[in-house]
What we know:
Elements: H1 3-38, H2 41-65, H3 76-119
Amino acid sequence: MDAKVWMYLAYLAVSIGLTVWVARALSRNGLVFLEDVFADKRLADAVNSLLVVGFYLLNLGYVTVAMKEAGPVGDTSQALEQLSMKVGLVLLVLGALHFFNVFALGRYRRGRLRQQAAAHPPLAPVGYLLPQGGPRPVNPAGSAPAGPTPGQTPPAPPR
């Protein structure tokens, strides 16, 4: 066999091995993140499985499309250079897919948390604070201060 065939075999072995390793690591470690994103364990498991399948399809599809080398491979050093270029591109695709997934799921999570926050109105006030110093307002008749004088207890808030 010539150097080009050995390069193809090495490329497939390294690329498929990296793809399987990364997919398992992301699936195992990403499940905790997905459970937080979706707040439902069954949905997180289902999405995790779908993401793994999509990851395999995209990455292995890219690996097979990028395998072809147009020019001749003259010697072993040229084969290793081409192999490193191809494996490097596979790693860049793996990284880009990973960061895209994390970005998209993070945006979804922020939107879900915003919706949950809007569903719960703030608490009603428990009491009222008295002004600390300064002129006291008077009631419309102009005879007595609107609030309690120092030393008096404030009126109970309306219920």
